[in-house]
Write a structure and sequence with these properties.
It is a single chain. This protein is an alpha/beta fold. The protein has 22 helices and 13 strands. The chain is globular, with a radius of gyration of 25 Å. It starts with 11 loop residues before the first helix and ends in a 5-residue tail after the last helix. The structure holds 6-O-phosphono-beta-D-fructofuranose. 6-O-phosphono-beta-D-fructofuranose binds next to loops.
């Protein structure tokens, strides 16, 4: 139960924003820049190694003032304090939300239910580091005495997307003599392709699941065990050398047959999509080593501290969260594109999709009242410059407003001739083109025939953020992820929704459990679904591979 709070749309700052929007929507970025020659330097902020240029947004100083007022009226400051204090702000699950404790330095104190959790966090990190060192050095051997060369993470959602994204992002820092694979999908192809060229004797499986009950993960883990035992002539003892678990559920881990000595724990106050820096990041640590992993945690922590302490007008996650609200709730923008100009961040948009949409895809406020405003926008994206040759056309000249986050680094990890200058030229060119476009006069002056001119005009006034850091390091990755985590939190706090549960994924899971026996039954099952679902089930039963 939570106390009723004033509905968002009845707040004075919201009403003032609605009035302000009517004027602001008419303003063009061309004018805003022409009126203030310092805008490009002024509307910037920097923290934890991350630089944000938010000048190419359709805002004035008045917009910012009102957005900041809205944040205050909605109690964002109190919500931040409550999260960092360990209050049970995940009310539907009665849990604290303390991913920030995962990166708190040794010696810090964060108390949950009367206990300081920071020593537990570091105990697990130390255990992970010890294990990682043993695997990486070759002293941890497989059942037949061979060293481990392959690591396969089995998990889904937050137990997969963070690990895959971090592995790809930090590949430059990884041990290239080892192979890392990630199996998430229940589609058998995922597992089959992941292991087809691997030697079981050199393979370690990490079964990553907060609950250790997730259907996809447990099915893949059983298949992995059978595959391993096949290679180990059925020797059950082999499992102990080739399987470790990451979970909060020790009972289920041992039920599966994994020795809990080989289990790395975490806690119910870590949400799945906020867990890549917990033991769920074991594959990341195995890839990059404990020192780099700690570097990543440090980057997270620097951004946490910035979020917790910086005044809102200079607070990167708050500014980004407020800008998202501005476009989502006033301009009616339905999506935000995240466009990393960094090949190593190719899985970053996919990772952000769970973080943002599982968190803020909610239709009721914390007290259960239906909202009368839009909540979480759709996040999507692809690495640049590939997207430019695909969907950017719609961003530039389509009818929808799509705010963009451009992400780039001053230095490349792979200096190769002119590549990096050309890459960065493209980032800067895209945000410039989106903001300023090309007027009919400019088109005419180029001698374009009149009939063609409308097709060649770019309205401009398409907003974007540019996020820059010196170099993609474990630290900057940590800061970048924390920036988005906290931006999502800020948005959810303003919408007054529960950003830390995910009840919306339950119904499909329950219905699938009902349909599985109907598909597997050797006799014709009695079906009680709607006529479409009944028909689909019958078609499948009739048409699936004849071998069954
Ligand atoms: O599908 C929803 C979800 O609960 C996610 O929030 C979570 O990240 C994922 O499933 C995996 O859960 P688990 O780690 O418990 O297997």
């Amino acid at each position: 139960m939570t106390a009723m709070v004033k509905p968002l749309t009845k707040r004075p700052a919201w009403k003032a924003m609605a009035i302000h929007y009517k004027k602001a929507r008419e303003l063009h970025l061309r004018e805003l820049f022409a009126d203030d020659p310092n805008r490009g330097e002024r509307l910037t902020a920097e923290a934890a190694g991350v630089f944000l240029d938010y000048s190419k947004n359709r805002i004035t100083d008045e917009t910012l003032k009102l957005l900041l007022k809205l944040a205050e009226e909605c109690g964002l400051r109190q919500r931040i304090d409550a999260m960092f204090r360990g209050d049970k702000i995940n009310i539907t699950e009665n849990r604290a939300v303390l991913h920030v404790a995962l990166r708190a330095p040794r010696g810090a104190s964060i108390v949950v239910d009367g206990e300081n959790v920071v020593p537990q966090v570091h105990a697990v990190l130390d255990k992970m580091a010890d294990f990682s060192d043993r695997v990486r050095s070759g002293s941890w051997k497989g059942h037949s005495g061979k060293r481990i060369r392959n690591v396969v993470n089995i998990g889904i959602g937050g137990s997969d997307l963070g690990p895959v994204m971090a592995y790809e992002a930090l590949k430059h820092y990884s041990d290239r003599s080892m192979r890392f694979r990630f199996v998430s999908n229940i589609d058998g192809t995922d597992f089959a392709e992941a292991v087809r060229d691997l030697d079981a004797a050199e393979t370690l499986f990490i079964v990553s699941s907060k609950t250790f009950t997730t259907l996809e993960t447990m099915t893949n883990a059983s298949t992995a065990r059978a595959w391993l035992l096949q290679g180990a002539q059925g020797e059950e003892k082999a499992v102990a050398k080739h399987f470790v678990a990451v979970s909060t559920n020790a009972a289920k881990v041992s039920e599966f047959g994994i020795d809990t000595a080989n289990m790395f724990g975490f806690w119910d106050w870590v949400g799945g999509r906020y867990s890549m820096d917990s033991a769920i990041g074991l594959s990341t640590m195995l890839a990059i080593g404990p020192d780099h992993f700690r570097g990543m945690l440090n980057g997270f922590h620097l951004m946490d501290e910035h979020f917790r302490t910086a005044p809102f007008e200079r607070n990167l996650p708050v500014l980004m969260g407020l800008l998202a609200i501005w476009y989502n709730n006033f301009f009616g923008a339905q999506t935000i594109a995240v466009l990393p100009y960094e090949q190593y961040l190719k899985r970053f948009p996919a990772y952000l999709q769970q973080l943002t949409m599982e968190s803020n895809g909610k239709h009721v406020t914390l007290d259960g009242t239906e909202v009368d405003y839009q909540t979480g926008p759709i996040y999507w994206g692809e690495p640049g410059t590939n997207g430019q040759h695909s969907f950017y056309q719609l961003i530039h000249q389509g009818t929808r407003l799509i705010p963009c986050d451009f992400i780039a680094f001053f230095e490349t990890l792979n200096p190769l001739g002119r590549h990096h200058d050309i890459l960065l030229a493209n980032v800067f060119a895209q945000s410039e083109a989106l903001a300023f476009g090309k007027t009919p006069e400019q088109v005419k002056a180029e001698g374009i025939p009149e009939w063609l001119a409308p097709h060649r005009v770019f309205e401009g006034n398409r907003p974007s953020n540019t996020i820059l850091a010196q170099r993609l390091t474990p630290e900057t990755l940590g800061s970048l992820v924390a920036l988005y985590e906290h931006s999502v939190f800020a948005q959810g706090a303003i919408w007054n929704i529960g950003s830390f549960d995910q009840w919306g994924v339950e119904l499909g899971k329950v219905l699938a459990q009902r349909i599985i026996p109907e598909l597997e039954s050797t006799t014709e099952p009695e079906l009680g679904h709607d006529s479409s679902t009944n028909h689909l089930i019958r078609c499948y039963r009739k048409s699936r591979e004849p071998s069954r």
